[in-house]
Amino acid sequence: MRIDLHTHSSVSDGTDTPTELVANARAAGLDVVALCDHDTFDGLAEAVQAGTELGVQVLRGIEISAEHDGTSVHLLGYGCRADDGPLNDELAKIREGRTERVPTMLRRLAEAGMPVPEEVLAKYVGDSPSVGRPHLADSMIELGYVADRREAFDNWLADDRPIFVQRYSVPLAQGLDLVRAAGGVAVIAHPWGRVSRDQLPVEVLAGFAAASRLDGVEVDHQDHDAATRAELRALASRLGLLATGASDYHGTGKVDHDLGCNTTDPAVLTEIAARVAERGGVL
Predict the structure, then answer these.
(1) Which of 34, 71, 101, 231 fits a disulfide with 61 by CB distance 3.0 to 4.6 angstroms?
(2) What are phi and psi of 229, to 5 degrees?
(3) Contacts by 136-144 with C-beta closer than 8 Å and gap 24+?
(4) Along the chain (283 residues), what's the average pLDDT of each consecutive run of 10 residues?
(5) What is the 3-state secondary structure (H, E, C) of the chain?
(6) pLDDT tens for each residue of 203-246
(7) Across the chain, which distance is largest between two alpha carbons, in Å?
């Protein structure tokens, strides 16, 4: 069984519709795929329906914008009840923060000689309730300012680049509690990737694990080299955390993140399902 527990659709910042994502997962030989759009559940119904029709099991997931000590942390929640009030209130607050910073980012782009008309940006946002920097990057690509999303982020949109504007993200501890209260399983995505390792050292992960707040860490991810994966896998084993693997697929929006490039052990999925059932979630 091949399981990819972290993908995105055009409902957030991927380029495939939920239906296209599931079809591509099937073509990639995946049996199970989790849709984890940023800060919204809106694509799940379509993805689940496509999975039923195409013979791919679709897990209900989400990727929540969190922060710890001022650094961005991506929190995956599996099996959360999509109608959970406190979680949805927080997601709405996060999405509002995304939207509110867009005018300032557009102004900064214009000042840098790269004006992005609002109608161009709107084309890439589409019906997504979760406006993200990748939508700006796609607009910049169309207008000929950059070649791809990587160049847009490396030169302009990343956290330490000229166009970046800070926004609200839920404190990690609060996010972990919200996922669990909504019946979900909480896994930190690429915890020792490009920006978060210094802010998520062993003692921090151990503290969340000991407090029964954190269920797992995403070990096999393209942002982790072989040594980091081995270190994280050993740590997860020592702390009793689940170790997951996934592509973090964004369609054409992210290179080297092909569906199924990293996968999760079926035994880990079985444990996730058991915990969701115990907590009253919906996987």
Answers:
(1) 34
(2) -60, -45
(3) 136/102, 136/105, 136/106, 136/109, 136/163, 137/253, 138/253, 140/109, 140/114, 140/116, 143/114, 143/116
(4) 97 95 98 97 98 98 95 95 98 94 94 95 86 91 94 92 93 98 98 82 96 97 96 97 98 91 98 98 96
(5) CCEEEEECCCCCCCCCCHHHHHHHHHHCCCCEEEECCECCCCCHHHHHHHHHHHCCEEEEEEEEEEEECCEEEEEEEECCCCCCHHHHHHHHHHHHHHHHHHHHHHHHHHHCCCCCCHHHHHHHHCCCCCCCHHHHHHHHHHCCCCCCHHHHHHHHHCCCCCCCCCCCCEEHHHHHHHHHHCCCEEEECCCCCCCCCCCCCHHHHHHHHHCCCCCEEEEECCCCCHHHHHHHHHHHHHHCCEEEECCCEECECCCCCCCCCCCCCHHHHHHHHHHHHHHCCCC
(6) 999 999 999 999 999 999 999 999 999 999 999 999 999 999 99
(7) 54
Q: Could you give all domains of the chain from N- to C-terminal order, each with its CATH number?
A: 3-91+172-279 (3.20.20.140), 93-157 (1.10.150)
For residues 148 and 251, is the Cβ–Cβ distance under 8 A? no
Say if CB 173 and CB 81 are below 8 A apart. no
Which two three-digit tokens encode residue 110?
A: 């214009």
